[in-house]
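Lecture 7 notes: from sequence to structure.

We start with a single chain of 271 residues. Read the sequence below before looking at the structure.
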Amino acid sequence: MIVMEHISKRYKVARRSGGAGAAMKSFLRREHEWVQALDDVSFTIRDGEMVGYMGPNGAGKSSTIKILSGILTPDSGRCTIDGLTPWKNRIEHVKRIGVVFGQRSQLWWDIPVIDSFELLRDIYSVDPAQYRRNLEELTALLQLSELLKTPTRQLSLGQRMRCELAASLLHSPRILFLDEPTIGLDAVSKLAVREFIHRLNREHGTTVILTTHDMQDISALAQRVILIGRGKILLDGSLDDIRRAGSENPGAQEEDLDRAVANLYRRLGIS
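Now the structure, written as tokens:
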């Protein structure tokens, strides 16, 4: 179970005006501004849930994922995942989670994919028999047999994302964090990734937290939606709750999800 209670996080960001004069001035005296990324964020996610974590750019989604994965330490608040504090029990914690960042890679760029997998096997100290079973299953489900001997740099985006998913699951994590996993993918690749995530949740009970701007991903995968804006949780409910909250016509039977979300962002002043 994932429990976040009153988590807050802010960043110190350097600011300066454009021009050579402002650049020279910044050498002598740098100006900073505090940005509140997360402001008293609380939620609970049960084992086996698939949750869509939504919000506009800069809402605090990636900061939340980084705290949950142990990369960041919050300024205040409490977070436990299966009884562990991510940033305090990081070595034990990362053995239980998988993370896929759509715009970053955990695969080594110049070596064949299988070499990256074997490095990850050693990093996570995966039992050799378990590694072979997982590799065979993931290779079959994600159709990786023709890709394993190919250097990562020579893969298409869709091929790389399938390999990234496999890499994040080689150590059999209980929780999978997906940050924009289908960004830039074509329709066929998106459908393949969605079907795989569904199967993973259905057959292994893996908890999935998905952050994305793609409402088709949300509607296809998420059983529950958490909406964040300006660092605060604004809504926690179902897709129907999103549609009702953003509906232009409260009596309508079905509201277009993208339109409902856009309307909701405007009403909440976070667009």
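The longest strand covers residues 31-45. Keep this in mind for problem set 3.
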